[in-house]
Amino acid sequence: IKKIAVLTSGGDSPGMNAAIRAVVRSCTYHQLECLGVYRGYQGLIEGDFVTLNARSVKNIINRGGTFLKSARSKEFLSVEGRKRAFDNLKAEGIDALVTIGGDGTFAGAVVFNEEHNFPIVGLPGTIDNDINGTDFTIGYDTALNTVVEAIDKIRDTAHSHNRLFLVEVMGRDAGDIALNAGIGAGAEEILIPEQNMGKDRLVASLKRSKEAGKSSSIVVVAEGDQIGKNIFGLADYIRENLTEYEVKVTVLGHIQRGGAPSCYDRVLASRLGVGAVDALLKGERDIMVGIVNNKVTSVPFTETSKGENELDKELIRVADITSV
Ligand code: F6P
């Protein structure tokens, strides 16, 4: 391998820049050429490349987003689109690709490799933490901190006005952000897709906390939770059935995707970026490099999809006990 290209694809996440930087600098270290691809797979199809060297990635370790930009490419879903991408890779003399993204990115890589037999190594970059084969994804820790900081602020005003706040957080079909940020922010209730709580149990539980002397409440709602999917409808239901509280809704939205990466995410991204180039040099391909028990490891792309998310019973218990 002499020339590696790197791209970011799917939803951006804080730490993607740090990961690109680590890939580029690993290439410099190993005397490999490195190209960046703009806008993920779409840039591959359009031949939108940029030559990168160690200095091209200065002053980005601290920056959120991805300077290579990202996209969810529809064209890459087609055989023709992938063929164009392959032709561009060949025309540029690129020997291998590092793709930073989530499971959609890895699914694309698998099909691409099947059709064109091209070495690809992936890195998990998503705030959702919904990837198998890694304990943490790049950007997740930063998103948790963003959510906790936001809820701390909401708590101030909730407390001043004796209000109940429903706070919707991202995570797609996974409840990791909701559960962990909910515990960290001291939420009264946490609604996650992995556990169907039901409206009535929620109301009953909020009633109990009111009776136990709480004057305000925070309910963290994962966007993928069944009843949370209509958070404004849920707020109406609570208003009708729990008249003791004034109910407000805050949807945190895309602020969770931005901001300077936490130190944890910068270090994780740096370790995985170095790991990706190491893996390619060892001849590995069709794998994602992740972190398991604080060790950099690799797992086949085909095993990175989470499927049904498991409920973390220990965390649920902690959330229950600490919110009495
Ligand atoms: O996968 C990251 C994520 O932010 C999810 O949490 C969310 O469901 C989705 O992307 C939002 O996507 P978009 O930015 O395309 O609206």
TrEMBL record:
GO cellular component: 6-phosphofructokinase complex
Active site positions, chain numbering: D128 (proton acceptor)
InterPro entries: ATP_PFK, ATP_PFK_prok-type, PFKA_ATP_prok, Phosphofructokinase_CS, Phosphofructokinase_dom, PKF_sf
SUPFAM superfamilies listed in its UniProt record: Phosphofructokinase (SSF53784)
EC numbers on record: 2.7.1.11
Matches recorded under HAMAP family: Phosphofructokinase_I_B1
Record-given protein name: ATP-dependent 6-phosphofructokinase
Organism: Constantimarinum furrinae
